[in-house]
Amino acid sequence: MLKKRIAATLVVRNGIVVQSLGFKFYLPVGKPEIAVEFLDAWGIDEIILLDISATRAGRPPNFAMVRSVSVRTRVPLTVGGGITSTEHILELMHCGADKVSLNQVALHQSTLIDEAAKLFGSQCIVVSIDALQTDGNYLVYNYLDRSVLAVPVDEFARQMQSRGAGEILINSVDRDGAKCGFDLELIHAVCSAVTVPVICCGGAGNPQHFIDVLQGTRVSAGAAANFFHFSEHSVTTTKAMLNQHILVRHETHARYASNHFDRAGRLLKKDDALLEELLYSRVVKEII
Hints:
34% of the residues lie in helices and 25% in strands. It has helices at residues 32-41, 54-57, 63-70, 86-95, 104-108, 111-120, 153-163, 184-193, 207-216, 226-229, 234-242, 272-278, and strands at residues 5-13, 16-21, 25-30, 46-51, 77-80, 99-102, 125-134, 137-142, 147-152, 167-172, 198-201, 221-224.
C-alpha cells in the first residue's frame, strides 16, 4: 500500500515566498532557497514551487530560481508559473524540476498538455486547478482576472486527465489561508472524477486537518503553504501526529515518537523528572 504524502506549496511572488490569503492578499515570508532548505531538513515528501507573478508579467519561468532551489532539496520538486511551451518544460527539467504544474495553460492552451505528456510522460505533468464555490457548485477559478468559469471542477479535472495529466493539484480559493481545514466535499468530487493521484491544498491549520483529509478521502497527498512557514519542525511534528493514525514517511532523526500532542498539533509538556533526565542525554547531530 502506498503511503500518503505531505507536500509543501511555496507560493512565490516577485521572487519572494509569500503567505497567500484568499488569492487576494500576500504577506512576505522569505527567500525560496531558505524555505526549501528548512522543509527538506524537516522531512517534507514533496515541494511545489508556484511562481504566481510569471504569467501575469508575461515572462517565462524563472529558471535561475529553479536551479538555485533544486540543489537545496532531495525530494521531488514540482515547478509552475510562466510555462507556455514544451521548451520551457525541457529547460525546467534541466534546471532540476521533476514535474511541472500547469494552470493557465490548462485554461487557454490545453493542447500543450497533450504534447507535454507525449514528450515527457504523464508522470511529469501536474494540472493545477483553482476552485471556487459558487451557488453551491464548485467552479473553475481564473486567478489572473479573478473570474469564475462556468465549468464544474470535477468535469474539468476529468478533461485534463484525458489530455494526459498524471496528477491533479486542487486548490480551494475559499479555504486559502483560512486555516479552517480542507474542503472535503470538493476533494471528494475531484477524487471521484479521476483515477490519477490528487493533491489537495487550501485550509490546513493544524495536523488534525491532514488526518481528516487523508483518512476521509482518496486523496494521495495533502499540501500546505502558510501552515508550514511559521513554526520550527512543523513538518516533523505534523508527521509524528499523523503516524498515530495514518502511515506516512517519517525518516528524520527527530521523530517525536514518544511525545503527545493536543488537537492543534502543539507538543504537550513532558513530566519534569523526564525533562531533567534529558538534560544529560547526548544527542548526536544527524548527518545525511
